[in-house]
Specification:
Rossmann fold; binds guanosine-5'-triphosphate; alpha/beta; single chain; 338 residues; Four Helix Bundle (Hemerythrin (Met), subunit A); 11 helices; 2 domains; binds magnesium ion; seven-stranded mixed beta sheet
Length: 338
């Protein structure tokens, strides 16, 4: 499944007005031969009003129909839409597009019959001017809403295509602990980088097969590297979005501390993330291949393991050297499928 926002299509008021007027006025319209006198002019002006009105209405309809029903999409995408646009603002703008469509259709109908009923050349022409002018002004009335929708659409369109129904493992931890290395090692294909509404952040998505079932791996570069108590509102919302997606959290701890963070700090982050995510969590003590080079590594790993094993499943791995990954996969499989 792809993102529900993939097909968004929004034109600005000016673009819609341009398109509608170009279609109506670019080429001369010729009345059928059987029409004579004033009926020829009526025909031409009615067709112009009809073209401007129906193109404008169709474009407006396309705008709100390209959006999914916001209340029936997965909470992950609801939360991201809320971060990007605000659900309330989004609903308001879509409502404005719908209102404009209905109003344009009403104006079109009204003026087409008024033109039919008139017999003065000057009246017919000024009715056509009035109709197209009113349609243009309905579009101008919602130009702010359309321009916002256009901006939101371009951000929403680039959201990652995450399948909320596919089992998902979110990999968290401080920077440099080896999250990307792990996701890269476990993924069957090169992980894809996906935009995430975080100024400079993105999600990295990998996939693997477990039990013949596709499982998603979500790498969270620099996103969950700070206790939720110090996150900004937007980051907390993004955390909530990730939470709605995660079936399992794999939290990476680097007992070698070559990542630049003390184990104590890493454990503290784990505690805070756990209290927010409240998901089955596996703690992976990574970089165990360095044990020969870093004298205190074994001791630090054992201490961490002792502190954690009551509350978490703990595995020792080396993402880079591929050590302990079988065990990690067995744990994941067990948690997901039994
Ligand atoms: N020795 C050793 N080095 C590792 C291991 N796993 C990762 N590294 C190294 O640690 C560094 C950081 O690894 P990354 O996978 O980029 O870490 P990350 O957690 O994704 O970092 P951010 O994306 O910055 O949050 C890299 O230089 C890796 O080569 C491991 O198991 N053993
Ligand atoms: Mg990384």
């Amino acid at each position: 499944m792809t993102s529900p926002f993939r097909k968004l299509s929004v034109k600005s008021s000016e673009e819609i007005i341009d398109k509608a007027f170009r279609r109506a006025f670019r080429r001369p319209i010729t009345a059928p031969k059987k029409l004579k006198g004033i009926d020829r002019l009526k025909y031409v002006e009615r067709v112009r009003v009809e073209i401007v009105g129906s193109i404008a209405a169709a474009e407006l309809e396309k705008v709100y129909k390209s959006f999914p029903d916001l209340s029936s999409i997965h909470p992950f995408y609801q939360q991201l839409a809320d971060i990007i646009a605000g659900i309330g603002r989004l609903r308001h703008c879509l409502g404005a597009a719908k209102w404009a469509e209905l109003t344009v259709r009403k104006i079109t109908r009204e003026y087409m019959s008024r033109i039919t009923l008139s017999s003065e050349k000057s009246t017919i022409i000024s009715l056509r001017r009035e109709a197209t002018g009113r349609i243009a002004s309905v579009l101008s009335d919602i130009s702010e809403e359309l321009s916002d929708l256009k901006k939101y659409a371009s951000e929403l369109r680039s959201l990652p295509s995450i399948d909320p129904d596919t089992p998902t493992i979110v990999v968290a931890g401080y920077p440099n602990t080896g999250k990307s290395t792990l996701v890269g090692k476990l993924s069957t294909a090169e992980p894809e980088v996906a935009y995430y509404p975080f100024t400079t952040r993105s999600l990295i998505l990998g996939h693997m097969l477990l039990h013949n079932t596709k499982v998603q791996l979500v790498d969270t570069p620099g996103m969950l590297d700070r206790p939720p108590s110090r996150m900004k509102k937007m980051e907390l919302q993004a955390l909530a979005a990730l939470k709605s997606l995660a079936d399992i959290v794999v939290f990476m701890i680097d007992p070698s501390e070559t990542c630049g963070y003390q184990v104590r700090k890493q454990l503290h982050l784990l505690e805070e993330i756990s209290s927010h995510m409240d998901k089955p969590t596996i703690v992976a003590l990574n970089k165990m291949d360095l044990a020969d080079h870093i004298p205190k590594l074994e001791e630090k790993a054992s201490k961490a393991e002792a502190a954690l094993k009551e509350a978490y499943k703990v595995v020792r791995i080396s993402a880079e050297a591929g050590i302990g990954l079988d065990h990690l996969l067995k744990l994941i499989e067990h948690m997901l499928f039994s």
